[in-house]
Design goal:
By secondary structure, the protein is α+β, with helices and mostly antiparallel strands. Helix content is 12%, strand content 29%. The protein has one domain (3-188): Glucose Permease (Domain IIA) (Distorted Sandwich), CATH 2.70.70. 37% of the residues are buried. It comes from Sphingomonas sanguinis.
Length: 194
Amino acid sequence: MSRFGWVMLGAIVVVVGGFVSMLSFGTGGVVVPAAPAPKTPGVAGGSAALVMPVAGYPVAKLHRDWGDPREGGKRQHQGLDIMAPAGTPVVAAFGGTIEKLFDSERGGHTLYIRSPDQRWSLYYAHLQGYAPGLAEGQRVRQGQVVGYVGDSGNAGPGNTHLHFAVHWMRAGDGWYQGEPVDPYPLLAGKTASR
């Protein structure tokens, strides 16, 4: 086998091993194994799991839209849109620190939560508003209400949903940086198909 072949085989073994190490048998519910990112064992340091960021939203209703064209094909969608009624509570998918509360033209009312190990960031966009008293630098627990589903930013009036994104962060990355990771398999417990 060529050197390239051995390198590819090694990469495949590492990725498959990462997926297998994140399997959890018999847990049920909406808590699923953490991120299948090849750079680190998982969200928040390996054993943590994400919870559904929209309160009461069933996993079976998730629709994968990662990579779908946006703005007439100028960019690709790098998150997961979770459609829900305006005002539905949005919760911290893992415990961490509110790194940034930010209003932007595209995302509207947004917030970023950084994991305790600083390697992961969660991005929430199109919020109707933040939970009362929420502030940058505040620690939040997994499942704590941090905001409410809305249609702010470029979501369009009445198109209420949460745009949920996950980023793998390198040392020194700011809240607006990081490598996008498809959140669908993290929440749905399925492997990526695209």
